Amino acid sequence: MIGNRITHRTADGVRIPGTWRHAFINNGGHFFLTDLFIFADALVDCWGLVTLEEFEEKLRSGWVATSFPEGAHASAHELAAWTFQGARSWHTPELLLAEVRDTIDQLNGRPDSTDRCLDAVDVFLADRTESNRAAARAAYLAIPETQRPYALGDMDRKDQPLQALLAGPGGVMESWSDEPLSQEAYDEAVEYFEERDGLIAEGASRMPVDGPEGSYAPSVHLYQTFSRRAVEDPGPAGLRDDYPAPVDVDGVTYPSVAHAYWSLSAAEPVARAAVAAAESSYAARALAADAVRREGWEQARTAVMTRLLRAKYAQHPALAEILLATGDATLVYDDAGSGFWGDNGGRGRNWSGRLLELVRSELHARRAGIG
């Protein structure tokens, strides 16, 4: 639940909304109380910005901790230190991950698991078949267990009316009683929902008629790599400028976009040739750093890179498919040597990612026969 815990980060000049909650990190057997930041584009920051899939791996491995061994040491940075004795956790990796997924839906104005459950309840109330009740019950169980008591937003009755409706006469409300539900109690639950629906109808809709204010597709993080040779299925690594995909520009073939970029940046033909022939993109960058830069390069470099990226994906259809498969996701590009080309943990301008998104849009347009 987001509440008043509102934050944001900036990516590609766009303000990405987010929220935060507490979490424990297990770093070498010592537990640290820290903040877990969750953003609308499905990136999670918990001692480093990661994708949702990578966050899940941290949960499964126990690095983001949901259980605490007896006697384990813990600390809150420069505030306190303690030892766990009889510690109890309300979460499992699965529960915490489910809550984070719900939070991302909420940040995007999309229905979360609670909304989906209440939608299924509406279907059941409109057509009270046992199959619709079973579907609503399954949707209720899909809500993270820690959030089910708050599904109705009723802090007095919590989810009791919801459980009664889903149990049906003679059924059992597992969290409330072992006794079979009476017809009278069931009728009260139905009445509760009828009154609730009337109140909701008087209020404003949770979702604007024309959809949410903004949509944030899960980001794709293009981490720093130093690939020396092409592979059959490089995945997102194939989108890196330094990935060894030869590109032909004006009759000259360069081992990679990075080679071409750094070669074209040099003022002298001899330096350009040496950079183009460098054994790696790292070596190409180092050679270019020692060469005289072309006049006006700083102002022209984004246009040059755009041309090179267009050439790369025109000449390598398989890599173009990898780029297209990222949909409309934000492409977060790391570049340890440049805060201009790399996002670098939100501190850079991410121009490599932004230009990749531009070229991707052009590929989509071409495929759709637009423009």
Summary, kept brief:
The protein has helices spanning 52-61, 93-107, 113-126, 130-141, 160-167, 183-202, 257-265, 269-276, 281-289, 297-315, 317-324, 351-368, and strands at residues 6-11, 14-27, 30-39, 43-45, 49-51, 64-65, 73-76, 80-83, 220-222, 247-249, 252-254, 331-333. By secondary structure, it is an alpha+beta fold.
What does the secondary structure layout of this molecule look like, with pairings?
Elements: E1 6-11, E2 14-27, E3 30-39, E4 43-45, E5 49-51, H1 52-61, E6 64-65, E7 73-76, E8 80-83, H2 93-107, H3 113-126, H4 130-141, H5 160-167, H6 183-202, E9 220-222, E10 247-249, E11 252-254, H7 257-265, H8 269-276, H9 281-289, H10 297-315, H11 317-324, E12 331-333, H12 351-368
Parallel strand pairs: 3-7, 9-12
Antiparallel strand pairs: 1-2, 2-3, 2-6, 3-4, 4-5, 7-8, 10-11
Helix pairs in contact: 1-2, 3-4, 4-5, 5-6, 7-8, 7-9, 7-10, 8-9, 10-11, 10-12
Percentage beta strand = 15-25%
Rg over alpha carbons: 27 Å
Shape: elongated
Distance between the termini: 43 Å
Major β-sheet annotation: 8 strands, mixed
Describe the protein in words:
40% of the residues lie in helices and 16% in strands. It is α+β, with helices and mostly antiparallel strands. Helix 4 (130-141) packs antiparallel against helix 5 (160-167), helix 8 (269-276) runs antiparallel to helix 9 (281-289) and helix 10 (297-315) crosses helix 11 (317-324). The radius of gyration is 27 Å and the shape is elongated.
